[in-house]
Amino acid sequence: MGILTARFRLFLWRCALLALAPWMLLGESRPIASEQELKAAALYQVLHFTRWPPERMGAPDSPLVVGVFGENRFAPLLQELVKQEKVSGHPVIITRCFTVESAAACHAVFVSGAEDRTTERLLAHMQGRGVLTVGDNELFAERGGSVCLTVRDDRIRVLVNLGAARRDGIVLSSKLLRLAEIVEK
Amino acid sequence: MRVCLGVGAAWIASPLRGQLTMEDLRSFSLEELMGLEVTSMSRKAEPFVATAGAVGVMTGQDIQQTGARSIADALRYATGLNVARVDSRVWAVSARGFNAAESNKLLVLMDGRTVYTPLFSGVHWDAQDTLLADLDRIEVIRGPGATMWGANAVNGVISITTKDARYTQGGLLSVGAGTEEQAFASARYGGEVPGKLYYRVYAKAYQRDDMLKLDGSPGHDSMRGAQGGFRMDSARAEDAGHWTIQGDYYQTEIRSEGMPDSPVAGGNLLARLTRNLSGDAELTTQVYFDHVARDIFGQYSEVLHTYDFDTQLRFSPWTRHEIVAGVNYRSASDHTGNTGTTQFAPSRRRIETAGAFVQDEMRWLDGRLGLIMGSKLEYHESVGWEFQPSARLAVRGPKRTLWAAVSRAVRTPSRYDEDLRFPNTRRPLLVGNPDFAPESVVAYELGYRAQPLRTLTWDVSFFYNDYRDLRSQERSALPAQRVFGNKLRAQSDGAELSAKWQLFRRWQLEAGYAFLHESFEMAPGSTDTTAGIQEWNDPKHTAHLRSSLQIRPGLEWDVGVRYVSSLPHPAQQAYTAVDSRIVWRVGGQWEFSVVGQNLFDPAHTEFGAGQPNARQVERSLYGSMTWEF
Fold first, then answer.
1. How confident is the model over A29-66, as pLDDT tens digits?
2. What number is the average pLDDT over the span B513-536?
3. Which one of A7, A10, A34 has the shortest CB-CB distance to B38?
4. Would the CB atoms of A85 and B28 count as touching at under 8 Å?
5. How far apart are CA B514 and CA B536, in angstroms?
6. Does A26 contact B at CB distance below 8 Å?
7. What's the CATH code of the domain at B303?
């Protein structure tokens, strides 16, 4: 066998070293980057399962506005995801909102992260306005948000608060409800 | 539902499936999204970190950030690729060694279409172009890829993919000017026939300046070209298939000193159909026609027509097994004009190849252990059947993959190997050998890829390649004449390291380093006295670092530094070059950018200053303006 040259043996040594080193060095690893991406994709899918009051939708090709509430990195990601996409014929537009009033002008608003007073105020303000509220805080649905996208056991979970959706004037399709966990308030 | 089968990527081996793209995410149903494990072990959504191969991916955004105006130029920032600009039309590009102006061990695909020429098994990089803004990604696979792609994927595969027409909707107009990229303009428009298809059409034109001779005078090798093309993609209906039809046409004129301009033209037309069959099976069929006409004045001329048919079936007959099998046929007929110094006899030839491959990917222990085995069996008319097997083992943990592979690949004889007569006289000094045997390699690889932090992915790979029957120049029966033989042997070994790190939300770093060592020896009985130096001219070290910083929303600053160590023959000094780009986006529609390439050096050679026709790459500055509507 001509392949067991000195250099090949050296290669094998390097391989052996390589095989051991990183497994020892990197015992612990942290959650994967795609969590945000998965949430963005899930939010986009939830839009397909949502029916808004007819007076909110305007013309068949008028835009569907999704607001991202507060300062976070979600908006550009979502923007990239829905670029050129349509939901039942409506082109999707992503906007950032910083006030409760501007959020109420959107068809859907996504609230990321911590539970705070502003979130409470926002949820209270949405009643009867035909806005789908989506959040990724574990308690978002329990506190009166319509849809919560959260991670449990390394998987995306969808929690739905039917009462909140009804109160805000939003109808969620049965297909979504089959996949989601219903949170009783 | 299949993940990560982007367009060209449909032709990429399953172990090499890339990361999830936005397009993949968009296409998932909610149910599928909920089935994805966030911690990566999922079979369908295999993140980049689970890829069991020495693969690098440049996204469309990465390509834009390099500031490159051509595909070859962008490849300078792909880890493990050695890119050297020889003169204005010739680029030497290789992976894992054997770089030469006619480097011949790399397979290059554009949207699934092979772009190497059977004339010398290399790539005419001056002719490979598209609208850069429409590039989806460039995947660089180092090491043999012959089991899936067949002959000539000896040291690596570069797969260039453009975006689905669905994602290039709307208009784009871009113009720019600069010192080397003297003037360029491009336009694209994308639209849809609702519910049926998406389309785009594009056109571009450019004028590129001369490079410099060694004495600093103009090299008189400027070029100008124009290209146009289209792409149509079916609107995706859930679970139905997908089809793509695309085509391009280009025309380029290259100046050369004291001679008429050399015209280069070409075009292609490709159709691909993917059907989802019952269960989890997927059938993909692709046909294309490619036309190339090059008349490099004083050197050679070539008219080449290629017809290619390829079909591939992917299915899971048993749990734990995913099988990909395919057949392909290609006919390449050329006509060499034989007016220049390089002659081919016969002047017309048709080369037919046909092949079949099968590959099985097995997974055990919840996917933690994977084994991919397969082989290609390929028929080439002048060498008969070639067997190109490979075995690849992957051990996967949370966000880490260790992989090892052994593969065999061959390079089938090109026209150059078999039919060359150089120079074009009654008694040429160098002639081809009709009995030229395929060159072959057995490659041993090992690699590790991990994502220790959410924001950091890195990988390292080692290889040892054992080459046999490489091209040598033997003494012929006639005095002073040499004929190609297969009496060169070589071993190479090396390592590649790459990392991508999102330090802050607005600051991303990307780096790569490659080390290469090669040794050559003549087989017993060889009369070659060149020691094989014409077959390779490689640096021991190549490295790059790229930073992309968002100074504030709408204002971005990119810097790249690249290093190539010295080359032996022709001798070339080591060099470091710095590229930078500043982009200013206004109102989501306008983009202004200023790019400087090779900033701190007025000019340098990249592939040896030893030859009289050596050319220097100059510092380049250009500005451009883009309007999207």
1. 323 335 777 888 899 989 988 999 888 887 888 889 99
2. 90
3. A34
4. no
5. 16
6. yes
7. 2.40.170.20
Q: What is the CATH number of the domain that holds A145?
A: 3.40.50
Q: Tell whether B2 is covered by a domain.
A: no
Does residue B3 lie within any of the structural domains? Answer: no
> Is B35 in Cβ contact with A11 (below 8 Å)?
no
B519 at interface of A, judged by CB pairs closer than 8 A? yes
3-state secondary structure of A36: helix
At A98, the pLDDT band (50, 70, 90 cuts) reads confident
| Residue A2 neighbours by CB distance under 10 Å | 9
A30 touches chain B (CB under 8 A): yes
Note the pLDDT of residue A72.
65
- Residue A44 belongs to domain spanning: 34-182
Segments forming the whole domain that contains residue B133: 8-628
Burial of A153 (0-12, 13-18, 19+ CB in 10 A): exposed
Looking at the complex, report in whole angstroms how far the Cα of residue B26 sits from the nearest Cα belonging to chain A. 6
- Assess if residue B539 is contained within a domain: yes
Which of the residue ranges A113-127, A129-143, B43-57, B90-104 would you say has the lowest mean pLDDT? B43-57
- Tell which of A1, A8, A13, A26 to mutate to test the B interface (max B CBs under 10 Å): A26
Residue A17 counted as domain residue: no
Does the beta-carbon distance from B493 to A11 stay under 8 Å? yes
Contact B454 A33 (CB under 8 A): yes
ipTM for the complex shown: 0.74
- In angstroms, the CA A142 to CA A147 distance is 10
| Beta strand extents in B316-438 (DSSP E only) | 321-336, 343-344, 348-364, 369-380, 384-397, 400-411, 420-422, 430-431
Q: What is the DSSP string of A136-149?
A: -STTTTTTT-SEEE
Predicted pLDDT of residue A4: 64
Q: Does residue B462 sit at the A interface (CB-CB below 8 Å)? A: yes
Q: Considering only A90-104, A105-119, B243-257, B401-415, which range has the smallest mean pLDDT?
A: A105-119
